[in-house]
Write a structure and sequence with these properties.
Largest sheet: 4 strands, antiparallel
Radius of gyration: 30 Å
Number of strands: 29
Strand order of the largest sheet: 3-4-5-6
Structural class: alpha+beta
Mean pLDDT: 82
Distance between the termini: 89 Å
Length: about 400
């Protein structure tokens, strides 16, 4: 009488075993999928290793990229997969993995400056325009003499036209403005943010931006009474524009990352921290070098060019002596500050020179990021090579 019951129980156990087996297979399948898809980057890191040296995946995917020799304001996206540059008043964006132009930005006026922000695929750029004031009326007056068919007054009309032309030019220059715009690569959309009053504009000397405080400082060079002056504009997150500082000339500005604090070097080598003069017992004049990600800034005394000071707040926290002071320029990004010498690059975080990174003096240095050196040769080809340390 108990045999059928035992058979039923055995059948049930078999079914449960089958279900368990199928469930185990499904579970392992999901785990394998997650391991392949979600942990793909880790596998990539292992695969892109050559002779024990890590090679970024992006470097292997990059193709031949040509940059016009006339290009300026060369900038890279935060992941260095894209490069942008200005040529003849337009912005071009190239995909470094294919070498092809993916976007051309053209505005009604010339684009004077542009750069990618450091943590997003967003570009900030500036457009020079002239306000629509009396321009149309001036043009009508300019052409009035030509419309009058009076050959006897031809010379008088020409003189009057020159005077009107000069007046028109002065009016145009006095009504120049800079439009600050952003371009979002993901949305393929440009948006006007603010407008800066920049009459008699000459150039933008420098732009400093912090994505943490969302503050922008723009150092603009203009003419006033036939003299060059610099005005530093401040733009906050509410798109409010103010003139932070106006003076003769400002050589360099540095904006800290985590707080709204601007360091300014004027043309007399005075350094100001939020408009307060900075000096030490030993030194009063400095060359401002740059900043790091911990809100330290670096300066070199004018009368001791082999010394580099690391400053936090208003306090010198470190004094470093370098053996070679023949560097020709300074480059800084979110990875640090780099002194550029004739044939090598020296990161400030290294202990002593001449240890550094090799560079080709025939090429133009552009950037150093994620251990990859970016240079442009004399044929306009962007060279992307693994940085090689001097031993």
């Amino acid at each position: 009488m108990n045999i059928p019951k035992i058979k039923i129980e055995l059948k049930t156990i078999k079914l449960w075993l089958i279900y368990a087996f199928v469930g185990t297979i499904l579970t392992f399948s999901v785990l394998i999928y997650l391991n392949v898809s979600l942990l793909k980057d880790e596998a990539t890191d292992i695969r892109y290793t050559e002779k024990g040296q890590y090679i970024p995946e992006a470097l292997l995917l990059k193709s031949k990229v040509e940059i016009p020799l006339s290009a300026k304001n060369i900038s890279f996206s935060y992941d260095h997969n894209y490069a942008s540059y200005i040529d003849v008043g337009r912005v071009y964006i190239k995909d470094l993995r294919t070498g092809k132009i993916t976007k051309e930005i053209k505005e009604e006026g010339p684009i004077t400056n542009s750069f990618f922000v450091s943590d997003r695929d967003i570009m900030l750029y500036f457009v020079l325009k002239t306000k629509s004031t009396k321009e149309d009326k001036s043009k009508k007056k300019l052409n009035k003499g030509m419309d009058e068919e009076n050959l006897d007054d031809e010379e008088l009309v020409e003189i009057d036209t020159k005077e009107q032309d000069l007046a028109l030019m002065k009016e145009l220059l006095s009504n120049q403005v800079l439009l600050v715009k952003t371009y979002n690569m993901g949305m393929d959309e440009s948006v006007e943010q603010v407008e800066l009053e920049t009459s008699n504009f000459v150039r933008i000397k420098q732009v400093e931006y912090s994505s943490l405080t969302n503050v922008i400082y723009v150092n603009v060079e203009m003419l006033k009474n036939d003299k060059i002056i610099n005005t530093i504009f401040r733009i906050n997150i509410m798109k409010s524009v103010s003139k932070y500082q106006t003076g003769s000339e400002y050589a360099k500005i540095v904006l800290l990352n985590h707080e709204d604090k601007l360091i300014v070097e004027d043309n007399q080598n005075n350094i100001y921290i939020n408009k307060i003069l900075f000096k030490t017992k030993e030194y009063k004049k400095f060359t401002l070098l740059g900043k790091d990600q911990e809100d330290n800034f670096y300066a070199s005394p004018i009368n001791a060019s082999n010394i580099i000071l690391k400053i936090k707040g208003k306090v010198v926290t470190e004094e470093k002596t370098i053996g070679d002071t023949s560097f020709t320029s300074i480059h800084s990004n979110k990875e640090g500050i780099f002194l550029l010498f004739k044939d090598y690059i020296w990161p400030l975080n290294q202990d002593e020179t001449p240890a550094g990174i090799k560079r080709d003096e025939k090429d133009t240095f552009i950037d150093l990021f994620d251990n990859v050196l970016y240079e442009i040769n004399n044929k306009g080809v962007l060279k992307q090579t693994m940085a090689e340390e001097i031993k």
